[in-house]
Amino acid sequence: MKHKQSKIILGSAIGLATLAVAIDHTRHSLPKAEHQKYENAGSAYDDDTPCSLDDSPCSLDDENPCSLDDENPCSLDDENPCSLDDENPCSLDDENPCNLDYEA
Amino acid sequence: MQLRAEITESMQKNKSDRGVVLFTVLAILGLSLFLQFAFSLKQAVLFLTGVGLGISLLHAAFGFSSVWRNFIRKREGVGIRAQLLLFMLASLLFFPILGQFFPEISVAAALGPVGISVMMGAFLFGIGMELGNGCGSGTLWTVGGGHVNMLVTLAFFIVGSVIGTAHLRWWLELPSLGKISLIDSFGWQPALLLQLGLLLALYLFVHFLEKRRHGWVTPVNSRKEKGDFLNRLIFGPWPLIWGVAGLLFFSLVTLLVAGHPWSITFAFGLWGVKIWTALGGDISTLSYWSSGYPARALASSVLADVTSVMNFGIILGAMLAAGLAGSFAPAKKIQANMIISAVIGGLLLGYGARLAFGCNIGGLYSGIASGSLHGWLWLVAGFTGTIAGVYIRSLTGIDRPLRTQT
What we know:
- The structure holds two protein chains of two kinds.
- Chain A is mainly α.
- In chain A, 33% of the residues lie in helices and 0% in strands.
- Chain A contains two helices and no strands.
- By secondary structure, chain B is mainly α.
- Chain B has helices at residues 2-13, 18-38, 41-59, 65-74, 78-98, 116-132, 136-144, 149-172, 182-186, 188-214, 229-235, 240-258, 265-278, 292-298, 306-325, 336-355, 360-369, 373-395; strands at 113-115, 176-179.
- Chain B has a two-stranded antiparallel ribbon with strand order 1-2.
- In chain B, helix 5 (78-98) runs parallel beside helix 12 (240-258), helix 8 crosses helix 13 and helix 8 (149-172) packs parallel to helix 16.
- Chain B is globular, with a radius of gyration of 21 Å.
- Chain B starts with a helix and ends in an 11-residue tail after the last helix.
- The mean pLDDT of chain B is 93.
- The A-B interface holds A 1-3, 5-7, 9-10, 13, 20-21, 23-25, 27-29 and B 146-148, 151, 274-275, 278, 299-304, 312, 328-334.
């Protein structure tokens, strides 16, 4: 095998390896899906906690007055009980026990 | 400008391959910066440590397979004595650290079980070294040096490593004494004295056999070519003693920065399994990859794995050294029996390394330098396998028959 042939084969192998590493790195660097984020957030999002998103005062399910369902009359304005204003029990403010801060 | 002119003149004088040097320097710079920003400074330092190891290995031509073969066939012992010297010096540095002489330094030893798995793995690895024409480190630096036939060995080294992980559980169920640390058993000071005594006895035994055959011994610091220090440091070749110094320094850096001794072959299994899964292969039955560090490594970028990053560094370091020395991608006649031998050798290397808890670096060098008894078992079984491999090479026509050698 001549010197030039060896270089071409080596160059191709290195190129292929670089591509494989890049693909692998990209696959593992993709942002996490939303549901995974909530899974990772721990007990703050468990159904049994007061801050659960299911059947709790802050629940977003269709029968809850704070639901975001299209047919729900609740607006998000400040005077509405479902408002996201800081003094509202469903507020997302940092000091609210139901806030979505990951360290909650 | 004067420095640039001097570098150009030296490169011309040494017949350096400028294209290879430029490509490699850019690749090393680019990857080290990327690792620093995407991962950590630690990862970048370990990559550069790999580069240093690659340069040391190639410039000093520091191998195991041909060195052991030359001793068995011709009683040329200079390479083995250099290895034993490296083991002694590494023990002197590693034992106090692992023995908590410096309590602020927390590092792990390369411990493996003293059992059938390691014994059989090292024996198969020894055969594989001779058929594949390279060991763990040797395969990497020869690939970096542009030896095309070693790409075949590396490819099947990876395949063998994956098969090894599939069978490892069964091998580990065979009789074993468990992990035995000389440092834990005797304390680091008595263990160090015991180990230095054993290594010195081996050194003198090799020296004796060499002298008896040839009437003289080649010194470890012998120099074949003359030239000023800096020129030889950059362009090579290095005397073996420089290789010992380089490997000692960079393996110490590895221990202190990574927190564990230098290893190579875990990455081969990881690369193989990643490729297999990317091709749609199922690894759900491979328990090795389902928990602990292997599972985490599999779920992360390959650039997050220390062993992989260091291996990339070794390949690029060897490529840089070969480019500087003007020896990259040598013209070579490749015969069919060499390819078959490389395939079988690569498979045995990979399979054996997994069973033996490491190759000649992770199992033998790091094992002995860590005071692990499995490193000594590796040495005995690996050398026995090498003797078998040397005979197989003669029988299959790769080498001349042993009896015609003088």
